[in-house]
């Protein structure tokens, strides 16, 4: 019996993918920004209404937790990747990258809870980093792996920001 090579055994995308290369820097910058804000190294710009920041921050965190849980537990993305299946249902009908989006929402929520307007420059930068990063890596891999099926999916579903309606 011939033993399969690593390449033959793994004709699917990596399960973790490039996730740590997005998540770790984003979380690290968020933690650093919060620490600098708390120490007044990044001082707040005047007084801001705290309640709206707390509400928006809390909602963003809840949304992030939901996105992550829906991708990992409901859609079972790890299993689908190993089966070499393009996942387009469940949470993936609402956003193409729910795990990355989850961290975008979680970090944004944490920054909002600081009530420091200066920190609000970071979420658009995180989004830009995510967009460029995904376009240069995973989207190229997925296009090569799934071709027209992935192109059609991209036309229907947002990369980072979930749609409420979905495309199931």
From TrEMBL:
Its main location: membrane. The chain crosses the membrane at residues 12-36, 51-73, 103-130. Keywords: Membrane, Methyltransferase, Transferase, Transmembrane, Transmembrane helix. GO terms for molecular function: methyltransferase activity. It is a multi-pass membrane protein. InterPro entries: Phopholipid_MeTrfase (IPR007318). It is found in: Endomembrane system. One of its GO terms (cellular component) is endomembrane system. GO terms for biological process: methylation. This is Protein-S-isoprenylcysteinemethyltransferase-like protein. It comes from Treponema pedis str. T A4.
């Amino acid at each position: 019996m011939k033993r399969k090579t690593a390449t033959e055994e793994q004709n699917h995308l990596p399960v973790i993918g490039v996730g740590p290369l997005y998540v770790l820097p984003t979380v690290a910058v968020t933690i650093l920004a919060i620490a600098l804000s708390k120490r007044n190294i990044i001082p707040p710009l005047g007084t801001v209404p705290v309640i709206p920041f707390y509400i928006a921050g809390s909602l963003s965190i809840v949304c992030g937790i939901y996105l992550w849980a829906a991708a990992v537990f409901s859609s079972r993305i790890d299993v689908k990747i190993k089966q070499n299946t393009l996942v387009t249902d469940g949470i993936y009908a609402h956003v193409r990258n729910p795990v990355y989006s989850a961290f975008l929402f979680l970090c944004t929520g944490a920054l909002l809870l600081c009530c420091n307007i200066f920190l609000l420059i970071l979420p658009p930068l995180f989004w830009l980093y995510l967009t460029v990063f995904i376009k240069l890596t995973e989207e190229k891999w997925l296009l090569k792996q799934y071709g027209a099926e992935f192109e059609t999916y991209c036309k229907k579903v947002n990369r980072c920001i979930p749609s409420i309606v979905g495309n199931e």
